[in-house]
Automatic annotation (TrEMBL):
Residues 222-309 form the Glycosyl transferase family domain. Pfam families: Glycos_transf_1 (PF00534). Keywords: Transferase. Coiled coil: none annotated. One of its GO terms (molecular function) is glycosyltransferase activity. It comes from Gandjariella thermophila. This is Glycosyl transferase.
Amino acid sequence: MTTVPTAPAMTRRLRVLLWHVHGSWTTSFVQGGHTYLLPTLPEGGPWGRGRCGRPWPRGAREVTPKDLRDTDVDVVLLQRPEELELTERWTGRRPGRDLPAVYVEHNTPRGDVPNTRHPLADRADIPLVHVTHFNELMWDSGRAPTAVIPHGVVDPGERYTGELERAAVVINEPIRRWRVTGTDLLPALAEAAPLDVYGMRLTGLNERTGVGPRRLRPVGDLDSGTLATELARHRVYLHTARWTSLGLSLIEAMHLGMPVVAVASTEAPRAVPPEAGAVSADVGELAGAVRELIDDPDTARRMGKHAREFALAHHGLQAFLHRWDSLLARTLRAGGPIAVAREAAARAETEVNR
């Protein structure tokens, strides 16, 4: 594993091609000073969502595959293996060879962990960016030069009231993803405090968990502004994921000023300091921490303030954008991705986030 070196921040406006894959992450990424080209198709779908109606800056522009062939693209930001072929087909340029490219890996590895080999492991011409140090550690990235750029979010402001003696949980597709998202832990945790669950595809959650709506209330998928306000009314934020990258909803909850109780898995122990809540692999301890925060609003508020301070310091938007500008600058200034990989191997001690 080699590490992509740092570089001075980008000083010119780039044309960055990327697909709309993860809405919250893309919301942060397109806040930078570049032009972001988002492929769009009439049917939408995974390869053509475009802006998808999101209130993003004007620099985030929709582009059709036909228009891409005649568009001057400076760099492509890949997020799925299929985008390698799709980029070549739509632009006529090969990522990592004719077109500078960076690959962002959002997910934890699956399968034969820790031996899971990344799809780009045999390529030294495309920097591989992980969103957590845990992911970089657990993926076998092979020859690919790697970097870690932690999540950064648009600050929703300190909104915490904690007026509801309930815990808030955000899980998308909790039934399908069951153990991955820790959905099976909800019955035990609902004994400590009533839970309000937000996210997509919650239908059948009460039946599947065996917990009635008085202790576990599926709310649904809300727009980001409404969700932030609703989360902040809860006494505590509960993070149950076993095997996901660090959820942006956790970082957003900390920005809101919410205390956090989290399962001690993947990047969570690094993301939640003791002053901001509780992190444990013991479900009984998690339930106890939830109960204590429900019963002690002053402690909950104090921990929430620590959570916000930590999130701003470690997951602020400007630091996130600067790290990305630094990596993109290095990719282009060094004469292309291959040069980046060679320089990265020679300067492996320098990390992009230092």
